[in-house]
């Protein structure tokens, strides 16, 4: 019988709690554990205090089968993970000769003097199984204690990833008989979480017991994550695809991609497929739309350039916006953004032009056009479409949301052709 194997990931270090470094380890470890069928049930961060570490270890023992610890294995006095593990397991410290030889060779190769602190990195809790770190001096350690597996790894991300990939994940796979956990992500745009939930409620209620649904809100839309658990990889893939096929007729208009698809990548593939080229005119987004487009490798095949027209004079002189349009309707208007999209398409000689103009904030709004009032447009040889966005008070969010919406407008127009 295959049972669920639960894991907890613990990061150790005051620098994480102080916000001095960003913890990327837990996200990476969570993904890798899921890929081998281990379900992460908790992630914890704790500072460099013995009692706090002992407490979180004891708590993890109650809810997890595997406890993965990163950090606190350096040579200095503030790195207390090994000593704390000795206290937790009730054992002493023993010098590991294999670890000592590795540390010695590490320093000799670099022509550096080794101190007693460096030699101390070869001292391990007596019950530890030594896990060789080929990329650093801090060892990995594997413990088996009261039907639990504890793994202690260095906090340096590239060292941790090497140890996990090449040593720990194979050992976990051999130690546990784990189920297969498969994810399928459906990426939507332009629909809120509650509206989406109402639309697919009947489908969600009919999901099989072994397939779970999660709503993951993001800028401009919601990701739907289907998670299936079982023992047959091919069967799970088939069952997930079957559920996607059932829900798509309900949400197809709002779906722009699956799994790791990003909107800019999807748009790029469509432009190549349809042999179209793109020009961009940006005002309130200040080049952010263009930056997202050019994040995609190979975007030079379809992206010809952009005009960041913050001033009205640039709108007139480079994009061909009529002065009377600006005078009558203002820079933030349907009429202006339409002429911007058409103007950039003509100026750059592209198949498609998209444009943004609005009040990103936090200042600049009025009763008639409050902060968050933004117009977007997409122009092709067939037509120009526009849309009014009524967003919030926060500048960064407004820029990111506008970018998401204008790229989705572009996607929809390409598909409509």
Automatic annotation (TrEMBL):
InterPro entries: CinA, CinA-like_C, CinA_C, CinA_KH, Competence-induced_CinA, MoaB/Mog-like_dom_sf, MoaB/Mog_dom
Superkingdom, natural source: Bacteria
Signal peptide: none
Matches recorded under Pfam families: CinA, CinA_KH, MoCF_biosynth
UniProt domain MoaB/Mog: residue ranges: 8-175
CDD domains in UniProt: cinA
UniProt-listed Gene3D superfamilies: 3.30.70.2860, CinA-like, MoaB/Mog-like domain
HAMAP family with a match to the protein in the record: CinA_B (MF_00226_B)
UniProt record similarity statement: Belongs to the CinA family.
Name recorded for this polypeptide: CinA-like protein
Organism: Spirosoma linguale (strain ATCC 33905 / DSM 74 / LMG 10896 / Claus 1)
